[in-house]
Each structure stands twice: as structure tokens, then as C-alpha cells.
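Render this sequence as a predicted structure.
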Amino acid sequence: MAGKGIVIVAFLYLASCLLVQTHGQNASTSGLRIGFYNLTCPLAESLVQQTVAQFFKDDQTVPAALLRMFFHDCFVLGCDASITIVSNSTNDAEKDAGPNLTVRGFDLINTAKTSVENACRGVVSCADIIALATRDAVVLAKGPHWDVPTGRRDGTISLLANAENLPDPSDTSQQGIAAFAAKGLSQHDFVTLLGAHTVGISHCRFFDDRLYDFQGSGKPDPTMNPNLVKSLRKTCPDPSKPIFKNPGVFLDQGTPFIFDNNYYKELLSRNGILRIDQQVGADKSLSGTVKKFASSSSNFNASFVASMINLGNVGVKTGSEGEIRLSCSVVNS
């Protein structure tokens, strides 16, 4: 078994290197590089890893939380940790935008930042800490490991209005593809990165229309497996009733704490929770990729590594751009 594991890791590393070179913007063109802090803060990556492990021990939903934070950060002004800035009397920050109200993991990032700052003050950006912590959390959920290119700097602007137009879970697959394309990400990245839902969580209000009154029909979404509708109705109450609760459910009902390819298997069985999930499963232009990932975890893992690196390059600030925040929650004075 140990030998098999080494072979798989070696394959994933090689595949990710090849994919990064041929698919999307690579790290060198974005100004990032692997081992950026080797001389200036050699303990940075291990300190972040230790913090993630500490939080994961008490909460196995940490991978889902950090993947969502990373995505929501990168899709606004780029991967610059603007999502971690808190609002004040003169500015409403993107953290308080509607799509971000259920984003979690800020305490973990702040704890990691404090640990790194104690080792080397003013050197490591919050943006890089988010990227590193997300990778470490995926690994703890039995997902692939990859070398994270670093060198991002933190943004100094965070506006609530900028985050109001994040991709919506009720979008169609084509709307999702268009949103990714606007960030320089491909259709392949779109299908691949949705695979993060294999450890994802959603609240009922984001999909309960599919259970009770889809598009005003008074009936469930016909594209959802009837058995899943029946099961989810036990958790998600009818939103038309006076008393409304908004519990969370796993987007992968089979292996919710393991980073694997089961999400794609669920799509083929019409068990996508969010509309955008099932849209991907039903879209004929995407079905080849969905089937490939459902049948091969190694294919999915290799693609996920490459697409995460592509996502991590979106709108990055490097060199003299932005700043290295001393606290992730506020810009430097």
C-alpha cells in the first residue's frame, strides 16, 4: 500500500506540473513562485499547516469553509484577502455582503496570521495564508497535495458592493461558465472547481425552492432525484410556512468529510443539491468531463490541483502592489 501511495503522489505531482504549463495562467506569469518565503520566513508554511491541523482536529468542515473563503476572495478583486477585512464606521466591507454572510474560517486565518507574525513580522501576506491553509485543509480531508506558488500581497480595498455579484448557487451551468470566463478561467476549471462541493455544505434557503416550489410550479425540481427530495424535506422545512429554519446540509451526501470524486458520481445519479450542481450534471457539453471525473479519482485530483493554481493566480497583487497586512482584518495604518 505504501508503494502504491508513492506512485499516486508522484503521478499527481507530474500531472499537475504538466497541466499548469498547458492549462490557464501559470505561476511564473503571475509573479508568484513556489518557496517564496524560504529565505525571509522559512517557518511560514509549517506554521500555517500546524494551525489548520489544530482547527481540523475539532472541526472536519474546515476544508469546506476554507475552499469557499478562497473562492469568494479570488472572485471579487482577486486573491488579495480583501474578504478578511472587517467593516468600520466609514466602510462596509465585502465580508458583510449577502453571499459572504455564511463564509467561515476567519478565526483560523487570524490565528495562523498571529503565529506567522510572531515568527517574522510583516513578511507573509494574508492572501498567501489563505491559499496555503486551503491546500493544507484539502490534504487533511484525504485530497491531493500540491506546492502552492506564493508571493501574493494583500489588497487595501474591500467594498460590500463588489461582492454582491458572486456566482449564485441557482445559476445555470452556462451562467457559471461565463462567470469563470470573466476571471480568465476555463470551462474545464469551472467543472473541476465545483468538485470542491465534495466536502461542501449549503443552507436550505439556497435550494429549498427545488424541494417544494421550483420556478413557481408548486412542485419539486424534476431534475432532482425524487428520493433525494424526500430525504432533504426531512431537514429543510417548506419556506412558505410561518416558522422557517435554515439548517445546513452536505452537498455530497455520501462521503461529506472526504475529498474524493463522489460529487461527480452523485451528479450522474441526479443527486446534485444546488441547481448549478445538477445543471453541470445534465449539461451535454460538460458530461464528458463529469463522467471522466466520476470514473477516475486520479483524473479529478490532477485537474483539481491545476485548477486551484489557476484560481490562485486570479488578480494577484505582487511586487510593490498592495501591502503585507499586519492584521488580516484591517489595512495597515
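Summary. Confidence is low (pLDDT under 50) at residues 1-25. The chain has two domains: 25-168, 173-307.
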